[in-house]
Amino acid sequence: MNLLIVESPSKAKTIEKYLGNGWRVVASIGHVRDLIPESGSVDTEHDFQPKWQIMPGKEKQLKLITDELKKADAVYLASDPDREGEAIAWHINDILNSRNVLKGKKVYRVAFHEITKNAILEALKNPREIDNNLVDAYLVRRILDYLIGFGVSPLLWKRNLGKSAGRVQSVAVKLVVDREKEIESFNPVEYWSVAANCGKDKNEFNANLVKFNGDKIEKLTLSNKYMVDKILFNIDTPNVGRVSQIEKKQIQRHAAAPFTTSTLQQEAARKLHFSSKRTMATAQKLYEQGFITYMRTDATNLSKEAVDEIREYITKEYGNKFIPNQPNIYVTKSKNAQEAHEAIRPTHFLNQNADLSGDELKLYNLIWKRTIACQMSNAIFDSVSVDIDVKSATFHCVGTTRIFDGFMKVYIEDMDDEKEDGEIKLPELNINDEIQIKSLIPEQHFTQPPARFTEASLVKKLEELGIGRPSTYATIMSTIVDRKYVDQDKQHRFHPTIAGWVLVSYLSNYFKDLVDVNFTAKTEDTLDDVSNGKKDKLSSLQSFWTPTNETILTAKDIKTTDIIDNINEFMHSHLFKDGSDKCPKCGAKLGIKLSKYGAFVGCSNYPKCDFTMKIADGLDTDKEPEQVGEIKTQTEKDLGENIFFKIGKYGPYVTNGEKNVTAKKYNFETITLDIAKELLNSEKKKIEPIILGKNPETDKPIYYYPDGRYGPYLSSNRVNVSVKEQPSLSEAIDLINSKKTKTPFKKRSK
Hints:
This protein is an alpha+beta fold. The chain is 35% helix and 21% strand. It contains 20 helices and 28 strands. The strands form eight sheets. It has a six-stranded antiparallel β-barrel. A four-stranded parallel beta sheet has the order 2-1-7-8, with helices on both faces. Strand 7, helix 3 and strand 8 form a beta-alpha-beta unit.
C-alpha cells in the first residue's frame, strides 16, 4: 500500500476517490510543528538553531500518519506547491525520521496545481525530492518573523505602545497612516469648469470649454467665479457655434489577465465585497474540491490544454468572431512569479453553473468569467472627437460607441476609485455644421485628497512595492484589522486607529528599517533568492539580524519620556487639528499619554491639573471634535437640592455632603434626583458574614463577606482575599493559604 499525505481532509477525500485501491490518503491539517512560542527558541549564537514543538492538537494527526505508515511501502508527501507546502513536507519527514518509522520505506515529494485525476496521476509519475532551497527560504522567513516578534513586541508591551510588530504588517499599517497624514494635510484647491449644452437637430449633448481667447483651458485654469463670469458675459446664450474639427478612430480594449492571488483578492473585494480572508478561505475550498487550480500564485500564464479547452468553449458558445487568431498571452508583472506554474482558473470550462452555492458559487463564477474572457477577442469602440467654435471659445466633446462586445460579452473588470466610462453617443456631425448653444453650465469643483486604501487597493500597493507574497496578503489584512490598528468604514476603506498611529510613530523613530518599504521589499527579494539557491540561509539571516539586534538593544535604553515626546511631534497635527494644544483648564501644554487602556490626551501639568481629553479614533476622525468627545472628562453632575452624582476612585456614587452611597448601576445619563434621594435615604442593613469552616493550618475560622466595600471577600486571621462568589471550604482554604499574611506594623522604638 502507498500512503499520500496532504494538508486538508476535504482534499484527502477528493484525491482518494481518484486513486482507488492500494492507496491511503490522510491529512496533516496544515502545519504540524512550529517554533516554541517563548523567548530563546532561536539560538542566534549558534547558526540560528531553532527549537521546535509539535503544535497543539497535532499529535493526534501525527499518530494517524504513523499508524497508516506501518501498513505502507512508500509515502508521498503531497502538501501544497509553494514555500509553506514544502515546509510542511519537510517537517513531517523530519518528525517521522526522528521517530524511526521510515526505515525501509521510500519517501517521495509530489506537487500538483489542480486536483483532477490526470494532474494527480501525472504528479505521481514524476516524484521528486524535497526542495531544500524552498525549505531554507521558509526557515529564513519564519526565524526572521520570530526574532522580530520576540525582539520588538516586548518593547511595545512594556510601554503600552501596541500589541505586536511584524515584518510586513507594520509596513501595511504605516501605508495607511501615511495616507491619512496626506489626507489631513491636504489643502483643496478651487477650480471651475464650463460646459455648453449643445443641440443638433433633435439631439442634445454637452461639450466642455477647452480654449478661450486663444488660451488653453486646463483643469485648474479657471480658479474662481470671477474668471467664469467673464466667459459667461462674453458668450451670451442662446448662440450658434460651428464644428471646426472632427477626428474619428477605432479604439480596442484588451481583456484583463487571468487571476493571480492578488488580483483575485482585489476583484472579489470590488465586485463581491469579500475581505481577503474570506476570499482565500472560499478559494481554498474550491481548490480542495477540485473546481479551481491552486489559489496562491503570482503567475498569469495558462497551460496549453486549458487554453485549447477555453477556445473550444468560446467558439461553441459565441462563434469564431469572439476568438482571436492566436491565444492571448499575458506577461506576469510580479518580479518573482515562481511559486506556481499557472494563474487561478477553473479545472474545467464546460459547466459554468457548478454544483455550488453561497460564497463558493459567487467566487467560482467570478474566476470562470475572468478566465473565459481572457482568451476572447478585444472589444471595439468607435470614437468621435469634435471641436465646436463659438465666438472666441472652443468646446470639445468625445462620443464613444461599442460596436463589438468581444470579451465584454462575458466580463468587465472593476477599477478602484474609477467608474466605468459609459458610452456617449453623438449625432452625425460634419465640418461647418451649425450647433445650437442652448446654455452654458458653470460648475465649481475642488481638488480631492488621495483616497483611503481599501483591502483591494492596499493589496495592490503592497504588490507594486514588492512587499508580501501570494500566501501572505490575506493574513496581513486580517492581522491589522484584528489587532485594531485600522478600522474599516461602510465603503470598506481603512482608517488608522489611535493604536495604529502610536505604533507607526514609535517604529518610524526607532525601527526605521522595519517600516521602510524598500528595506521590506529587499527582504522579500532575499527570501526569493534563497528559494532559488542564489543566497544561502545563514548569511541571509546574519545580514538581517546583526543590525536589527543592535537597534533592539539601543531601543531598550530609550527613556519613555523621550518616546512620548517623539510620538507627540509625529501626531501633533492629528491630535490638534486646530493647532491649539493649550490646556483649557490651566493653560499648560497638552500631549498624548499612554496607558494599558489606550492613549489619551492629558495635561503636562498633571497631577496639579487633571484635564484629560478623548482622542478621535479610527472612523471617528471624520466627525467634528464635539461628536467624538474631545472635551474634558465629566466627573460629577449636580442633581439639585445639593445632591451630586460623582465618579470617584472606586466608581460612581451619590453624595449630599454628609453621606456617600455607591451608585454603580448608574451613569450620567440614567441617574436622576429621585434615584439619588432613594439611595441616600435607604438604610442598608449590614449583611452578616458566613462562616465557611476552619483553616486546618491556623485553626482559625474562614469568613465569607458577600457585601464588602470593594465586593465579596474572604477573611481569616488578618488575611483578606477578594472573590467573585462564595467558594467551597476547600477552595477558600487554598485561597487564604496561598496569600501571605501581612506582617503587623510595629512601632519603632526610640
